[in-house]
Write a structure and sequence with these properties.
The structure is a homodimer.
Chain A lengths: L2 H13 L2 H8 L3 H15 L4 E3 L4 E3 L1 H28 L4 E8 L2 H4 L1 H10 L3 E8 L6 H5 L4 E5 L7 E11 L1 E5 L20 E4 L5 H4 L15 E5 L2 H9 L5 E3 L1 H6 L5 E4 L6 E9 L5 H13 L2 E2 L4
Parallel strand pairs in A: 3-4, 3-5, 6-13, 8-9
Antiparallel strand pairs in A: 1-2, 5-12, 6-12, 7-10, 7-11
The first copy, chain A, binds a DNA duplex through helix 3.
Chain lengths: 299, 299
DNA sequence: TTTCGTTACGTTAGTCGTAAAGATT
DNA sequence: AATCTTTACGACTAACGTAACGAAA
């Protein structure tokens, strides 16, 4: 069985019509019939149940289609990528990152750039007010986000960072005098939340509505950038859970970061639209996998 | 480019020798040379740098190899699976599960069995004393385990269950009189740990050495089965963190389960040896993905 | 001179198109 | 009768082997 046959099989599985399949592939209808007949002979079972009026997949055919399609697509991607590399085209991959993450992900990004100097990696900033929009609009091909992500059209790839959340408070906030702070303390001050709509389950990570023991947490000012978060925290209007990278790179006089002893771990992963997965994306994912998530020991 | 060419390319990339490649594929040496020449012409770049003494991959060739191999393997698996399905062979997949999990994973397993009545799913029990051994020995092809798993030869697949850990204590244990218990309380009683060697990072999930605030936790009796865990807990020798499924299915008179308000979430995922991944395994993983992890609301 | 990759050339399997036949509604 | 799929058959492409050639140590 050769790729050409697989292409014919997959196209027919989509069209469910020998004539249209032949047209799409610019071959004669007879060829489609012959190719399918050959494959069925080799497999040893009918792949399509067909009359002169209807064509449909048999169970074995349906299973084969599901198993073949991913591999076939990968092979196409691979050869296409090699061809464009050969033509000296600098292939470009646009990766969406949150604010200061580029610094924190240096290990992973360096590994990727070293391994693949021929691929130009563009970094674009994405914001928590619209974590998935740029991916879906095609503005970036891959992005990072914190987990969990439950979007049926997006694939969640390898982790790139994993670190307990920290609590951002005003420098003169009452909590700064405490020996320890815990997630229970969140019940006493409002948390900011996203000014534009984002999935509620996703918002829960940084802006939970209840403490671990079930006490409600108020939602305070609506914000749309990290600067605004810092601003409302600095004035004491709110406290905010943030990821470790923020704590490391945004150090302001009016702001302090505390480590709740029971802070949940914030996990960042690569995500991309399942439908537009390419060899380029898989290459990036492989580098992320090999670099492993950046973890920071709890102090 | 057809599958035959890809096979020749991948074999040569492995052997780095035209003669041996020809032997392995039972073709003439000339054919190997012709096939590679054709592929290089189509891609537009040399894939191998070769003299009459040395053969090695060019950067483009190395990239192509990495990108092609997975897809090629998938296609082979797919056709093999279809052939054996056609021969009416009931293909069998052996899945390793911990004790009572089969009940808890009913949704996922039912989905798989309904979708694929032609695949016989064998369940074998695996134990926490040797979580990865059966996979590596081939006794099971896929297994569940709790995360994290950091084994370079194993692939971590989709989550199958996700639920906060619970604390197993003797029915007359002092902790049972408390209004709430937390992870900090673990510092006061020893936890059992595995009698046989398992990776320390993995043991940390159920048998952490420190509380969230950093106080040390003693390790008490070494145990090798869940029954033994229950036994040492019932006598008051130890308390034990366990996953939700245990709490649901092992209900003994001398045992009670408590919910630490800040218990970490226990995550179970499918894992399998990367090297022996098959279409069958991917089919199971797809079902797990679609069923989603079983989650239990915190009460 | 031996070892290996490449090139030349002839054979043949099998891909593909044309055209006609067979099935289904 | 109209609309599809299958079969028959011939043309031609390209896969492959044999054998000779060329480069490297």
């Amino acid at each position: 069985m050769e790729l050409r046959d697989i292409e014919i099989f997959l196209t027919l599985a989509e069209e469910l019509h020998f004539g249209r399949t032949a047209d799409r592939l610019h071959v004669s209808q007879a060829r489609v019939s012959q190719s399918i007949a050959k494959q069925e002979r080799q497999i040893g079972a009918r792949l399509f149940a067909r009359s002169s009026r209807r064509v449909e997949l048999t169970p074995i055919g349906a299973q084969l289609r599901a198993d073949l399609s991913a591999g076939y697509q990968q092979i196409l991607d691979a050869t296409r990528a090699a061809s464009s590399a050969a033509r000296g085209e600098v292939s470009t991959l646009t990766l969406g990152l949150y604010g200061p993450q580029a610094l924190d992900l240096a290990d992973f990004l360096d590994l990727f750039r070293n391994r693949h100097p021929e691929i130009r990696l563009h970094i674009r900033e994405v914001h928590f007010t619209d974590p998935f929009g740029p991916l879906r609009a095609g503005a970036v091909q891959v992005s990072t986000t914190w987990l969990p992500v439950r979007e049926p059209d997006l694939t969640v790839g390898p982790l790139v960072a994993s670190e307990p959340l920290v609590l951002m408070v005003a420098a003169d906030h009452p909590l700064t005098t405490r020996a320890t702070v815990g997630m229970e303390d969140l019940a006493d001050w409002p948390l900011p939340h996203s000014a534009s709509p984002v999935p509620e389950y996703w918002l829960q990570t940084l802006s939970p509505t209840h403490t671990p023991s079930g006490r409600p947490i108020r939602r305070g000012p609506a914000v749309s950038t990290f600067q605004e978060v810092a601003a409302v925290v600095a004035t004491g209007e709110a406290v905010s859970l943030v990821h470790g990278d923020a704590a490391r790179h945004y150090r302001w006089p009016g702001i302090r970061y505390l480590r709740p002893y029971d802070a949940p771990v914030g996990n960042w992963a690569l995500i991309w639209p399942t439908a537009t997965e390419t060899a380029l994306i898989r290459t990036l994912a492989r580098a992320a996998q090999d670099a492993g998530p950046r973890t920071t020991r709890t102090t």
